[in-house]
Specification:
Strand content: 25-35%
Order of helices and strands: HHHEEHHEHEEHEEEEHHHHEEEEE
Structural class: alpha+beta
Shape: globular
Bound molecules: adenosine-5'-triphosphate
CATH topology of the largest domain: BirA Bifunctional Protein, domain 2
CATH class of the largest domain: Alpha Beta
Largest sheet: 7 strands, mixed
Number of domains: 3
Number of strands: 14
Number of helices: 11
CATH superfamily of the largest domain: Bira Bifunctional Protein, Domain 2
Mean pLDDT: 94
Low-confidence stretches: none
Distance between the termini: 38 Å
Oligomer: single chain
Helix content: 25-40%
Length: 330
């Protein structure tokens, strides 16, 4: 299911990841291949969503310099307790989807915590199979497999707690303003979608289950590709006006997610509720609830103790919604 980048192509990408010009001769020497072979490899970069600039007398460079994922750099952002928790951490060049990979792994394993990231997903997913754009080396696609030692009925509010974890990681990274959460699973910056969460469950019994928590976070999404996205979106590079520190951000995110899962398993949603409410972008706002066969308009009134969305309808009655098949829109 995982695809491996051909070794020479990966080396070429690593070499060009500094965004500087390199001559064909220099590239050939470093990769121990002929200039003709270098040229062939350079032609393949566009298949990996990488744009190349060629200049006479200067050579070649990647238009956007990349920071490829690195276990050691990521690890340096984790607390000792979180480092200890992880049974296995893997970084893939390409996966169909990081969630799919861990869903398969968790179904067979008994380990508590397994983490995976991919440079690219070929079939990244949001809720209900919606496509999640996942070009090579640009964003973060991270999933955590977690053996949850409680009744799966306790998981109703997990996506809300995970939203708080993503906000905390972004705040630690330095983004302190304009972040919002939209029930049940989206992270927004000034009404533009920045990240999404996908939680899936397998191997349920009354006493435990295996969870896979996936987060897709936009760091530097090529505008040409993003034309496919049918709602306002944003990435970290646009917010900060700087080159994203990809490993730092992935490490901070992983650290917050692990701490959140630990606390959630012990105490449920209660420790996260106040913070979630602070970031609820629909509170007191006119919203629409889109269901498979109808749409209801009303005013967002927050969440109840089970994490259900509360809508004040046009008659002034409060209606409750659980996440399943519905979408919430401002
Ligand atoms: P809801 O879950 O409430 O229905 P949603 O429509 O945003 O919200 P999600 O499953 O959360 O659904 O996310 C998938 C959607 O996100 C896609 O349909 C597209 O509009 C958008 N999308 C896809 N890829 C990206 C991306 N890389 N960045 C931001 N948005 C994306």
């Amino acid at each position: 299911m995982s695809q491996i980048l051909p070794e020479k192509l990966k080396k070429l990408i690593q070499f060009l990841s500094d965004g500087q010009f390199h001559s064909g001769e220099e590239l050939g020497k470093n990769l121990s291949i002929t200039r003709a072979a270098v040229w062939k490899l350079l032609q393949q970069l566009s298949e990996w969503d990488l744009e190349l600039e060629a200049k006479t007398n200067k050579g070649y460079r990647l238009i956007q310099n990349l920071e490829l994922l690195n276990v050691a750099k990521l690890d340096s952002q984790l607390t000792p307790a979180n480092k200890k928790l992880i049974n296995k951490l893997e970084i893939f060049d390409v996966l169909a989807s990081t969630n799919d990979y861990l869903m398969q792994v968790m179904a067979k394993r008994t380990e508590k915590v397994q983490v995976c990231l991919a440079e690219k997903q070929t079939a990244g997913r949001g809720r209900r199979g919606k496509h999640w754009l996942s070009p090579y080396g640009r964003n973060i696609y991270l999933s955590i497999g977690w053996r949850f030692e409680r009744d799966p009925s306790q998981l109703a509010c997990l996506s809300l707690a995970i939203g708080v974890a993503v906000i905390n990681a972004l705040t630690q990274y330095g983004i302190k303003q304009h972040l919002d959460l939209k029930w049940p699973n989206d992270i927004y910056w000034q009404k533009h979608k920045l990240a999404g969460i996908l939680i899936e469950i397998t191997g349920e019994t009354h006493s435990h289950c295996h969870l896979v928590v996936g987060v897709g976070l936009n760091l530097n999404l090529p505008h040409t590709l993003a034309e496919q996205i049918n709602q306002p979106w944003i990435d970290i590079a646009t917010i900060t006006q700087a080159k994203p520190e990809r490993n730092k951000l992935a490490g901070l995110l992983l650290n917050q997610l692990l701490s959140t899962l630990t606390l959630f398993e012990q105490k449920g949603f209660t420790p996260f509720k106040t913070q979630w409410q602070q970031y609820d972008c629909t509170l007191g706002k006119t919203v629409k609830i889109i269901m498979p066969t109808s749409t209801i308009a009303g005013i967002g009134r927050g969440i109840d103790e089970k994490g259900c969305f509360l809508l004040e309808n046009e008659r002034g009655d409060i209606q409750k919604f659980s996440s399943g098949e519905i979408s919430l829109r401002l």
